[in-house]
Fold this sequence. Notes:
The structure is a single chain. By secondary structure, the chain is α/β, with parallel strands linked by helices. It contains 10 helices and 9 strands. The chain has helices spanning 19-28, 45-55, 86-112, 119-126, 133-142, 149-157, 172-181, 200-205, 220-233, 261-276, and strands at 3-8, 33-36, 58-69, 72-79, 170-171, 185-188, 210-215, 236-240, 258-259. Strands 1, 2, 3, 4, 5, 6, 7, 8 and 9 form a 9-stranded mixed beta sheet that branches. The two termini are 20 Å apart. Zinc ion binds next to loops.
Amino acid sequence: xxxxxxxxxxxxxxxxxxxxxxxxxxxxxxxxxxxxxxxxxxxxxxxxxxxxxxxxxxxxxxxxxxxxxxxxxxxxxxxxxxxxxxxxxxxxxxxxxxxxxxxxxxxxxxxxxxxxxxxxxxxxxxxxxxxxxxxxxxxxxxxxxxxxxxxxxxxxxxxxxxxxxxxxxxxxxxxxxxxxxxxxxxxxxxxxxxxxxxxxxxxxxxxxxxxxxxxxxxxxxxxxxxxxxxxxxxxxxxxxxxxxxxxxxxxxxxxxxxxxxxxxxxxxxxxxxxxxxxxxxxxxx
Length: 285
Ligand code: AMP
Ligand code: ZN
Ligand code: FE
Ligand code: FE
């Protein structure tokens, strides 16, 4: 059997692995295809594609966008994106800028709370254009200001905690359209995480192509439920570990294995889309 892991983060957002390390782990786990889905960036895709090619592993360029639909946060994965699409790059650059500003705000709040974290410590550790809360958590641990990453989230960074700063969110409809105009497929990430099933029909109306049925935090029952929903609405089925390297307790790559037939279906869908509208052109390797 061939398997894929289509939800991976690298050090270009809040993961810790370099593209080389992502692909080395993928090879170690015997994966036949992977997708890189860093938050609000596709910067790591070119290097990961090169490494995958050398290792004989299929690669899908991707990203994970934070969107909202009916006041509910929803994460949308974009797959088979043209990583040079100008409008797409311009939009995600805006989100990267907001993420950087948000780091300043989170550190200012921590300072007000008497936690002497320096903003430079976070940016040095993050060393990327798309920083996030895990970098603040790691900087707190590294500076000896808190013991564990979980404690950092529980005390300060989780929604509703004193150093939490909301993230800029695009509308679900606009995110899907942005992904489509860059030649990509739009997939709802980890629907079981925030129990957002009631927004699925609206997202489908907005053009949603698929749903992430298999995810580290989905129970078997949840995966089965989303497979049924995918079947009911004729959505593509995707899955991935959401590995962040050592940014979380341990690397998750290889713990979720998507049967390869679903990668074939995604590839067929994107080819059909492009035959209908030949302008967009992300790599199909
Ligand atoms: P952000 O994009 O800055 O809002 O950060 C979101 C990231 O933080 C996601 O990758 C989450 O998985 C991660 N995250 C959320 N809660 C925790 C937690 N308790 N421990 C570690 N990482 C977390
Ligand atoms: Zn993340
Ligand atoms: Fe997510
Ligand atoms: Fe993710």
